[in-house]
Design brief:
By secondary structure, the chain is mainly alpha-helical. The chain has six helices and two strands, in the order E-E-H-H-H-H-H-H.
Length: about 220
Amino acid sequence: MSLGPEVVFEFEFLDRTFGVTGSIVTQWVIMALLMVVILIVSRNITKIPSKRQSVLEMIVSMFSNLINANMGPSYKRQFLPYIGALGIYMASMNLCGLVGIPPATRDLNVTATFAALTFFLINANAISHLGVGGYIKGYFKPFPFMLPMNIIEKFTVPLSLCLRLYLNMLVGTMILELVYHGLGHFAFLIPVPLHFFFDLFVGLIQTFVFAMLTMVFVKTATEH
């Protein structure tokens, strides 16, 4: 059992050796599959929806309603592509355990990248709404001596997002690996509810929490 990302293969470029981890390969495969699925389900969009189109519209409406409820209608058009892509992509990675593949989100590098994207989005949106001057003034509110605390708060947001997702997915993977290792040849006896909880329930909940916190932090950053 390995806590860190395992290197699948290595290659040399400009006299340097680079390692490709299993989490990177998993992400490539998921991205390729999602692109194929999206191309298939988005073909032949008509006014009278087919079953395939109805499912697609239901997913879009779900994310649209979520953004509308938590951020307001003014944010819906701007953030629907990002929140929708984030939710589908992260959920796909979190659910890899259902098919026997370690979820890529148990890799700290993956969750840190998600958190960095959200960090950039939060601050870019705040500058867009408040202007550079208004954004800088926010660091001195409600009192100038709060400047150090406000700076620390900016970095604790992505840190908490990163560690929450990483630790939840890592712990679930470790518990399942320990159970399988302990049962050995009797691994087929592992209870289905254990997989249902760690692979399905926790994976979807963590996706929902990450998306919700992203929307909340983006919205509140423009109101300070």
